[in-house]
Amino acid sequence: MERGPWWRMYQDPELDVLEMQVEGANQELKVALARLQEARAQTRIARAAYFPVVNGTASIQHYRNSLYAPTHGPATPTITNDLLLNADVSYEADLWGRIGNSVAAARLAEQAGTADLSSLSLAIHAELAGDYFVLRGADTEQEILDQTVADYARAFTLTQSLHAGGLAALADVDQARAQLETAKAKAAETHLLRAQTEHAIAVLLGESALSFRLGANPLPPETAPPALNPGVPSALLERRPDIAAAERLVAAANAEIGVARAAYFPVFDLMAVAGFESTEPSTWVTAPARMWSLGPAAAVTLFDGGRRRAQLAVSKAAYDEQVAEYRSVVLVAYQEVQDSLSAVHDLELESSSEAAALQSNASALRQAQYQYQMGLVTYLQVVVTENATLAARLAAADIQIRRMSASVLLIKALGGGWDRGSLPP
Fold first, then answer.
1. Which domains can be identified in the chain, with CATH numbers?
2. Which of 202, 280, 305, 350 falls between 20 and 30 A from 94, CA-CA?
């Protein structure tokens, strides 16, 4: 299967133009892209913990101490200035992997978001292709029905003339009228289906259904889906973006377990402060006013009422959930491929059978019309044969639509043109 724009396999220039408009116009894709940007920002936030945090402070205070303050000093209050300018540095040593696991979880979630975006893009492109072929199939059926309505209208007019001349029964006129109105109703129903499908395509392209229009373009009778090679089943795990997303979420949940487990161990920080402090502006930033401090700090939680144990249990349960979700996604993927393969194969056989039935109905219609003209059969026999022929033509068009749609679903089930190499490293 082609990588990238898989829809080119159908060799339909109009479909190519529509598919190329989706990426920049579809609103659902814009939402997913915004979520991906958020995940990328979360990765950068987590990665920032690898580096020290530097804070700067500058303050000027003019204060009076309390006579009753618990300090040793003069018997009377004093008014003093305190000018402070310093910078402090703090750095957490990642001895237990808390930061590393947090970064890994964020990065894996970002990769899952990338795969989710690809999965949504594949689904929307496939939906557009499916709607497009339904639209063109509706054009085919509309063409058949419009031609049929015109033929039935002429037959109704002719039957009325024959009845007026005493050459046809009133029942023939009623049958011709009923046949004509039934065909008109089917034509109106097909027109409604086409309009609704056109509106659905407009939404996928981010356009208003009020102004969006696609000209009628019936499918030629010889149109058939492209030949597809599904490949070996194991390759499906490399070609489905939703499987890749589920796998990355499993790995991210596993990293979160490491984050929760690290909470049991002490946090070691290296603290450093350097700057200037003075009571007078003239001696503020001078060598004698220098001050600094340096030293490590350790913090450990001695009692938290079981919070860390519960958090670890939450992380493990979330991991089990993602594992089950991953297995479910894989099973559904295999089911979708097998369903689509069966549909493509069976509809091809059905198409051959329907083509033979259509030829037989056309031959029977010609014989019935000839026999009616010779007075050998009633007009009812002609009506029955005409209805059977119309049903066969519409069934052939419907099978053609279903074949094209089934091929689109098979391409979607196989992952389209996506592969695992599309994910960020």
1. 6-51+95-265+307-422 (1.20.1600.10), 53-93+266-299 (2.20.200.10)
2. 305
